[in-house]
Design brief:
Elements lengths: L3 E5 L6 E5 L5 E6 L3 H13 L4 E7 L3 H15 L4 E3 L2 H5 L6 E4 L6 H10 L3 E4 L7 H12 L6 E3 L7 H11 L6 E11 L17 H5 L9 H5 L11 H16 L7 E7 L12 E8 L2 E8 L1 E12 L3 E3 L4 E3 L13 E2 L9 H11 L7 H20 L3 E4 L4 E2 L1
Parallel strand pairs: 3-4, 3-6, 4-5, 6-7, 7-8, 9-12
Antiparallel strand pairs: 1-2, 9-13, 10-11, 10-17, 11-12, 13-14, 14-15, 15-16, 17-18
Helix pairs in contact: 4-5, 5-11, 9-11
Length: 394
């Protein structure tokens, strides 16, 4: 294949997929809204040699135009433009794709990218529907040569990498409870949509056949507020912090989840909660996540162990709350790990080296499972359990 070679370690060894150091690696961005534009700038900032964005896909014509202008300014080339993501995946001159369209598209697009033989950077949440997430997960597992990074970028934060090491080394003992919270007092995700014209949007491409509904400018612009296009706060925000649970505890899936919430303040026609709380049970550990858009109390990221408490926001280990003989006796600052490259830079480097990125498909599926369990618990009003054998609700 052009610009690619297959190397074997021995007669019976599997082939290893690689790029040569001199090869140019051409990228396509699928979804050039605010997140796609941010990731484009992250590619530029990474300054990884031989990387070039050569295709822009977005269902909104103005976003495509903005993407084309950014590519022209940065690389002095005319990007391939389309409103249909399949057209980017089918191009032989595109080696890898960035999937940054709305949340409900992530799993099906990732699955299709694997079928098309593309490496992928898939934004979080990896999935908002468990059946879709499972299909994408299995599609990646069937293609072990593919390099897939999930966009839970906290896995590339030097302070949190240090926290993971402290916890896994037993610094605060056995962890039995985790408390994570995020609070803003604002109608988050509400956006003006009156300028959106039907002629500017490929509506069929936007819906992907996932739901039948006539053009709706508000749904298109404020997709974070409606169940057709998101599973709400579990995918929109909890995914960042519940990802830490599977990472720090080294346990891929919660056993059960309960959740409650509703629209308590911003009664503007939204369906997704403005106040939400979930409790997920891991092995001998209860993980809690709470979020409100009704109060600006800030955030919390605390891990309660038998020897002490770790504050992941302040990066400190504290002696409070322990009577263990080997308990933490004095407060200690956690030193961030030095020399950590950005999340995007990590993926770009792995494209060439063919190493596994920091947020691999297992980490992505783990947070997707947790988010889908919490969303289903909220919808059904009951405890939801997970079967690790079938990878489905129990």
């Amino acid at each position: 294949m052009k610009r690619r070679s297959f190397l074997a370690a021995g007669a019976s060894a599997p082939a290893v997929f690689s790029f040569q150091p001199s090869d140019k690696i051409r990228l396509g961005i699928i979804g050039f809204g605010s997140r796609g534009a941010y990731l484009f700038n992250e590619i530029r900032r990474a300054n990884e040699p031989g990387m070039e964005v050569a295709a822009i896909c977005d269902v909104y014509s103005k976003a495509r135009e903005q993407g084309a202008a950014a590519v022209k300014k940065t690389y002095n080339i005319d990007a391939f433009l389309s409103s249909r993501f399949e057209e980017v995946l089918h191009r032989k001159d595109i080696d890898a794709v960035i999937l940054s369209a709305p949340d409900f598209t992530h799993s099906p697009m990732l699955e299709r990218a694997m079928q098309a033989g593309k490496d992928a950077y898939c934004e979080k949440p990896m999935g908002t529907n468990l059946a879709d997430a499972r299909k994408a997960y299995l599609a990646v597992k069937r293609e072990p040569k593919r390099v897939v990074q999930i966009g839970t970028q906290r896995r590339s934060e030097p302070g949190l990498i240090a926290c993971a090491r402290e916890i896994q080394a037993g610094a605060i003992g056995k962890i039995t409870r985790v408390d994570t919270q995020v609070h803003f007092q604002e109608p988050r995700w509400r956006r003006d949509h009156h300028m959106i014209q039907p002629s500017e949007v490929d509506w069929d491409a936007f819906t992907m056949g996932r739901f039948q509904k006539p053009f709706d400018a508000r749904l298109f612009r404020e997709w974070q507020l409606f169940p057709e296009t998101t599973n709400g706060i579990p995918g929109l925000w909890m995914s960042h912090l519940v990802d830490l649970a599977s990472w720090f505890l080294n346990e891929p899936y919660p056993k059960s989840a309960v959740a409650s919430g509703g629209v308590y303040l911003w009664k503007d026609g939204r369906d997704t909660c403005d106040v939400f709380h979930a409790l997920l049970e891991y092995t001998d550990c209860l993980y809690g996540f709470g979020m409100s858009l009704t109060n600006s109390a800030g955030s919390r990221n605390e891990w309660y162990g038998t020897k002490g408490t770790l504050d992941g926001d302040r990066l400190v280990i504290m002696p409070r709350g322990s009577r263990a003989p080997d308990r933490v006796t004095e407060e200690r600052k956690i030193q961030p790990v030095a020399g950590v490259e950005s999340h995007m830079a990590n993926w770009l480097r792995c494209l060439r080296s063919r190493q596994t990125p920091r947020a691999d498909i297992q980490s992505g599926f783990s947070h997707a499972v947790a988010g889908c369990m919490a969303a289903e618990a909220l919808r059904a009003g009951r405890k939801v359990r997970f079967n690790t054998g079938t990878l489905d609700f129990a």
